[in-house]
């Protein structure tokens, strides 16, 4: 999975979790909690959704990287590169 | 023969709009079935029926705004006696306003106390169907009431992506205004605050989550809710309802949890028998409740049954909050954000994650001495998370 593919998946899943926000409109390094007003439950749901969709385990200690679209995409990109 | 009436979904509710019937004449209903969707100040709420039987006749048409107590449907308790159901659409009998009234005109329904945003039923329905927030519109009708034409105009110029349908935030704002004004008018609040080291709970949570796949993990909020519910069980004077007869403690703890909705909404539906749930069941209930609340799909009983409330500022909040009691409850517990702070352990300053928990109590029902013990008990429970 390339960074761009991972990025699209992350954006799609954010849209599923919070249909009232527009993740495409924000930058990759912006904290989605600030930029989109997502909360810890939304981040929890995002990680659970990526876990289910991609059938991968995302360790809880890496959860902090999923608060930006870029951080999440990079994590997924690097994870698939390691496999 | 029973009659299903417009329920009172809160002390400040005088009327509601029947948005949708989910059952039709001839359908059988069980205790607890969702029978209709009613729009109130608290947003659209699914209403349950507490009777078993067969729907005989619907007395009010969808789109009608009627006062609390108005008969909405007749339910035949003798479910075996199949009676011919009413043919064709039910005849509206009481205080109705046609959904597509053109042009909408001001009526008594628009100015009824607790009736929600000043908007015509047609405007409201149109806005709801298209996910337009009435609060964002300027009304051109009498007294600034929003009319159908205002919604249609907004629809043309709306270009923001991603606006979904959800709870009516304008109605929700009015509900908050009514409930909180009543609270500050009637309830003699007193406040207590207690700051403590949260290391034990956070370390436990980290270990718990490290061993589990994402959907089985817990959020700190679930621990906080469980801790408060367990503590309330031991302090009954903080758990129940204040009514005409004074305070009545409630035997079960149905803890309400304040859920913020993007755009400014707020609701505090409860999780039933909170203290008896395991942490994983509680987390599941919380996920479900947050998701439904943000879609505007919480049930009437989930609001009305809350025996006390927790308000949690989450991780991006500030150090402490001074919450306002949601009447007819008599207590609300607040949690500020976890802050890393210098902390004295024995003689040494160390840096620890600390949290400030607060209590607003109704002085008619309880007092500060017991309130202080309640907050200390919450600290104690959170310092032994493996017992949760």
UniProtKB/TrEMBL annotation, chain A:
**Which positions are tagged coiled coil?**
none
- PROSITE patterns (alphabetical): CARRIER
A Pfam match is: PP-binding
- Ranges for domain Carrier come to 1-80
Highest taxon of source: Bacteria
* Protein name, as recorded: Acyl carrier protein
Please name the InterPro entries in this protein's record: ACP-like_sf (IPR036736), PP-bd_ACP (IPR009081)
From TrEMBL, chain B:
CC per GO annotation: cytoplasm
A Gene Ontology MF term for this entry? acetyltransferase activity
Q: Please name the Pfam families in this protein's record.
A: 2-oxoacid_dh, Biotin_lipoyl, E3_binding
What is the main EC category here? transferase
Domain Peripheral subunit-binding (PSBD) as annotated: residue spans: 118-155
Cofactors (names): (R)-lipoate
Provide the alphabetized UniProt keywords.
Acyltransferase, Lipoyl, Transferase
- Quaternary structure? Forms a 24-polypeptide structural core with octahedral symmetry.
Which segments constitute the Lipoyl-binding domain?
1-76
Q: Tell me its EC number(s), please.
A: 2.3.1.-
State what protein this is by name.
Dihydrolipoamide acetyltransferase component of pyruvate dehydrogenase complex
Return the annotated region ranges for Disordered: 77-106
Which family does the entry's similarity section mention? Belongs to the 2-oxoacid dehydrogenase family.
The highest taxon in the source lineage is Bacteria
């Amino acid at each position: 999975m390339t960074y761009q593919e991972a990025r699209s998946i992350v954006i799609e899943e954010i849209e599923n979790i919070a249909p009232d926000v527009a993740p495409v409109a924000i930058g990759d390094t912006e904290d989605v909690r600030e930029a989109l007003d997502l909360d810890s439950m939304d981040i929890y749901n995002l990680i659970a959704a990526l876990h289910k969709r991609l059938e991968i385990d995302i360790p809880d200690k890496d959860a902090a990287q999923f608060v930006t679209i870029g951080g999440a995409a990079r994590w997924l990109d690097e994870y698939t590169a390691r496999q | 023969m029973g009659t299903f009436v417009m329920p009172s979904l809160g002390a400040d509710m005088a009327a509601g709009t029947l948005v949708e019937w989910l059952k039709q004449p001839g359908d059988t209903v069980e205790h607890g079935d969702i029978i209709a969707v009613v729009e109130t100040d608290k947003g659209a709420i699914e209403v349950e029926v507490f009777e078993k039987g067969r729907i005989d006749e619907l007395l009010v048409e969808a789109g009608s705004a009627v006062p609390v107590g108005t008969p909405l449907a007749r339910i035949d308790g003798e479910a075996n006696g199949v009676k011919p159901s009413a043919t064709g659409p039910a005849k509206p009998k009481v205080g109705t306003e046609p959904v597509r009234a053109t042009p909408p005109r001001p009526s008594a329904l628009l100015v009824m106390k607790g009736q929600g945003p000043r908007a015509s039923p047609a405007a409201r329905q149109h806005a709801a169907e298209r996910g337009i927030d009435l609060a964002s519109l300027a009304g051109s009708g009498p007294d600034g009431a929003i009319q159908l034409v205002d919604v249609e105009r907004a629809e043309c110029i709306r270009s923001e992506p991603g606006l979904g349908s959800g709870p009516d935030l304008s109605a929700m704002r009015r509900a908050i205004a009514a409930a909180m004004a009543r609270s500050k008018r009637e309830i003699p609040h007193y406040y207590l605050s207690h700051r403590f080291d949260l290391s034990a709970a956070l370390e436990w949570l980290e270990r718990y989550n490290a061993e589990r796949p994402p959907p089985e993990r817990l959020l700190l909020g679930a621990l906080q809710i469980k801790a408060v519910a367990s503590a309330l069980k031991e302090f009954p004077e903080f758990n129940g309802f204040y009514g005409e007869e004074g305070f009545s403690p409630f035997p079960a703890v149905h803890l309400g949890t304040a859920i913020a909705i993007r755009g400014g909404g707020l609701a505090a539906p409860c999780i039933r028998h909170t203290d008896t749930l395991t942490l994983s069941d509680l987390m599941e209930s919380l996920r479900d409740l947050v998701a439904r609340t943000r879609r505007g799909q919480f049930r009437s009983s989930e609001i009305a049954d809350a025996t006390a409330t927790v308000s949690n500022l989450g991780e991006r909040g500030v150090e402490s909050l001074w919450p306002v009691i949601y009447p007819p409850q008599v207590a609300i517990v607040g949690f500020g954000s976890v802050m890393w702070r210098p902390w004295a352990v024995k003689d040494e300053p160390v840096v620890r994650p600390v949290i400030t928990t607060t209590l607003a109590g109704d002085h008619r029902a309880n007092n500060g001495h017991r309130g202080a013990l309640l907050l200390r008990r919450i600290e104690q429970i959170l310092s032994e998370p493996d017992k949760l």
